[in-house]
Amino acid sequence: MDSYHTILLQKGYLVHLMAFENKSSYILFPPFQHCFLVYLFLLGLPTCSFSEPHKNVTLGSSLTATEQHDLYWTSQFGEFAFGFLQLESKGFLLAIWFNKIEEKTVVWSANRDKLAPKGSTIQFTSGGQLVLNDPSGNQIWTPSSSGSTNQYVSYAAMLDSGNFVLAAANSEILWQSFDVPTDTILPSQTLNMDQTLVARYSETNYSSGRFQLQMQSDGNLVLCPRAFPFDRVGKAYWETNTTVSGSQLVFNLTGSINVITKNNTILISVVTNTLSPQNFYLRAIVEHDGIFRMYVYPKPTHNSSMPKAWSQVSDSINICTMLNTGWGIGVCGFNSYCRLGDDQRPFCTCPPRYVLLDPNDEIKSCKPNFVAQSCDPSSLETDNFEFVTLENTNWPQADYGYFKSVSEEWCRNECLNDCFCAVATFRNGECSKKMFPLTYGRMDPSVGGRALLKVRKQNFTFQLNNLVHKQRNKPTIVVIGSVLLGSSIFLNFLLFLLTLYIGYQLRRIRKSKLVQEDLSILGVNLRIFSYEELNKATNGFIHQLGRGSFATVYKGIIDSEDNNNLVAIKKFDNVVQEGDQEFKTEVSAIAGTNHKNLVRFLGFCNEEEHRMLVYEFMHNGSLADFLFGTLKPTWCIRIQLVLGTARGLCYLHEECTTQTIHCDIKPHNILLDDSFTARIADFGLAKLLKKDQTRTLTAIRGTKGYVAPEWFRSLPITMKVDVYSFGILLLEIICCRKSFEEKVEDEEQMVLTDWAYDCFKERKVEILVENDEEAKMDLKRVKKFVMIAIWCIQEDPSLRPTMKKVLQMLEGAIEVSFPPDPSSFISTIL
Length: 830
What we know:
Elements: E1 6-10, E2 13-16, H1 35-44, E3 56-57, E4 62-64, E5 72-74, E6 80-87, E7 91-98, E8 106-109, E9 121-124, E10 130-133, E11 139-141, E12 155-158, E13 164-167, E14 173-176, E15 184-185, E16 190-191, E17 196-200, E18 208-215, E19 221-225, E20 238-239, E21 248-251, E22 257-260, E23 266-271, E24 280-286, E25 292-298, H2 300-303, E26 309-312, H3 319-322, E27 337-340, E28 346-349, E29 354-356, E30 366-368, E31 385-391, E32 393-394, E33 399-403, H4 408-416, E34 423-427, E35 430-434, E36 442-443, E37 450-456, H5 462-485, H6 489-522, E38 527-528, H7 531-537, E39 544-547, E40 551-559, E41 564-572, H8 580-591, E42 601-607, E43 610-616, H9 623-627, H10 635-655, E44 670-672, E45 678-680, E46 695-697, E47 700-701, H11 720-735, H12 752-761, H13 773-776, H14 779-792, H15 803-811, H16 824-829
Parallel strand pairs: 38-42
Antiparallel strand pairs: 1-2, 3-12, 4-9, 5-6, 6-7, 7-8, 9-10, 10-11, 12-13, 13-14, 15-24, 16-21, 17-18, 18-19, 19-20, 21-22, 22-23, 24-25, 25-26, 27-28, 29-30, 31-37, 32-36, 33-35, 34-35, 34-37, 39-40, 40-41, 41-43, 42-43, 44-45, 46-47
C-alpha cells in the first residue's frame, strides 16, 4: 500500500507503518474475539458509565509533588499511573503515563502550561472535587464540571484503558480525561467535533506548542499550525477532506484509527491495523514537530528486547515544504531551515556561521555569528564578505527583490553590494534577494536552485585582535611612566603591585582571545569545555567505555542549565602538538555535520596538551555488541541498520560541506541510540592524529579485515575505501558473524567474503542465513544485499559504486546488476 509501508516488528507480527509507542490496557475488555462488538458499541454510544475493573481513589485521598517517584494512583492491573512527574528542575507535571515500561511516556496532563512547584498537592476532597493546589493553597487546576447535575462524585479511578474518571455511586462518569485530551489519544478513545490535540512545545517541554490536530465541526480532520503562544490557527497543511457534520475520529482496540459518521459509517481509515492488545501498547500523538504519529511498543511480557516502532500517520507529509504561509515563522525559527531526516522526521538547522539564540531550543531561531554588513555609503565592506552555498534551500517569505534573466555571478554581486541583503537565491536565471528575518526556511530536493548565504569572511576578528593589541601596549606605557616618576621604596612597591595586576589582566585577555578565536574560526554552535570541566564530568577519567590505538573514550555527565546529560568523551592519547590550527579546522568540519545517522558532536577541549571531543552518549552500545552478542537482532532490525549506516556514509561523502572519508568503518564504530538507530562514530578524525596513530597494518589506516586493497598498493586513497569497508560490514550484518572466524566446521567459511561469493556464484545464498527463519522468508532481499556487498568489495576501486549508488540499490531505486568476481582485478594485474 502506498500510504503506509510495512515493517516486521518481530517474527510473526506484521504492523503497518503507522506505529505507536504505548497503549492503554486492553486485558480488561472482553476477549479479543469479541472486539468487533465492543468496537460497534464504542462507535454508537457515548461513554457515560463503565464496568471496567478498577481501584477506587477514595474521597479525601491526596498526592504531594516530591522527588519520591513511587507516589501515584495506579490502574487495577498497573498499566497506567496518575500522579506527579518531575520535569528536570522546572517543576511537576500532573499526568497520566504508561507504568509498565521503563520510559514513563506521558499520555495526558492537567497543568502542561503551568507546572506545579515542589510541595504542590492533588486532592480528591471529601466533597468530590479534584483540585491541584500549590504549596500556598492557591488553585492551579481543577476539572470542569460535567455529567448530571443531580449526581455527586463518589469516587475517582485510574482505568486500565488510560482514562482517569470521576464517577457517581452508580458508576456514571461525571468527568473523564478522555474528554479533555492534550496531545495523545489511546485505543477506545474518540476525538469529537471541535476537539483538538495540541502538540507539546518540544520533546522535553510539555507546554502547548505550535501545531494541533482538530476534528472540525464540518467533519474534516486537519493538522494546522498555531500562532504560538496564542490559540489562533493557520491554514491546514494536512487534512482528510471528510466533510460530514458530526463525524468523529475513533481509535479502536486493534490499532486502527478511522473517521466515522454518526451512523458508524467509516469515511476514511487514517490507520488500518490488526494488533492483539494483549501483546502491544498503542498510542497516537501530535508530536512537537507537527506530525501525527502512531506508536507500537511490545509489552514486556511479550518481547522485552524489541525497541519501539513508530510511523507517520499523516500520510507521507513533508511538513518542511507544505507549511508555506500564514502566521508564525514556519516549522523552524527565524533564520533557520527545516529538512527531513532519513526517518522522515523534520529537524531544524542553523545555516553555516549562524548559531541558536537559545542553545537548548532548536526552534527558537538562529542569529548570525558575525557582525552584519555596514550600510555606511563610504564603506560597504564588500571585500569582507563572501557567500556560502546551500543547495535546494530557500526562505520563500523573505523576498524583497526579484530579477529575471540574470547569471548567478550577477546575483551574487547584487546581494554583495546591498547591505540589506542577507541571502540571495538563484534558480534557472532567476534571482531573489532576501532580508532578515528569514522565515519558512526549508532544504529539500523539490526546492531546487541554491541559496547564496552572505557571511563575513573568517578573518573578521581583526578588530578584536587590534583591541587586544592596544590593551597589551597599555601596561608597557604604565610601567615606563612609573619608573620615571621616582625611585622611592614606596613607588617601587606600588610599581611591583601594578606589575602583578597587569600580568593578571594580560593572562585574562589572552585566554579570552583564545576562546573568541576558537568560536570565530569554528563558526558553529559548539560548547568549548575546559579540562577542569571534563575532569569533573568523568570523576577523574575513571569510567572507561573503550580504548583505541589513538584515544580512550570515557563516560561522563556534564552540567547544563536544565539537567545533567550523559556524554562520551574521546580523550586523545597522542595528538599533533604543533597542529593547533589544524585541530580547529578539523573540529569545525566535524561540527558542520548534521545527520540522524551520525553521532552528534557537542563540543571540544583544546587546552594546552589536552585535546578532547565530546559526543552524545549512545545507550545501546556498538553494533559489534549487538551483532555478535548472544541475542541476535531480527532481520527487520538488521535491514534498518544497513540502511541507516549507508545513509550516514552517503551524507559524509556527498552531502556535508566538507567531504569526509571515514577510513575506519567497522561494527565498533557504528553506535546505536535509544531507538536502535545506527549512528556512525569517529568520522573526520584522521587529520587530528599523528600519521602513525591510525596505522594498525604497516602504513594502513583502518582495522584489519575492513581495509581496502589500495592501502597495500600505490593507489590513490578515495572515498571508495569506505565503500569497501561498508561491503564487509554489510556481509557481517546479513550473516550475523564476523568477517573472519577460525572456529568454523567448514574451513571454506572462515573468510566471510570468499564464502559469500561462493554461495552467490553457486546460487545458494540461503546458506548464509541458514539459521535465520526471518531472513529466509525474505530471500530476494538477502540475495540483493549480497550482490551489493560483492560490488562494494571489488578489488578494483573503479568498479565499486559510490555510496550514493549503494544507497539507491539498497532502497530499490535502481536495479542491482550481476557482480564480477571481487578478486578479478588481482588476476588482471598479475
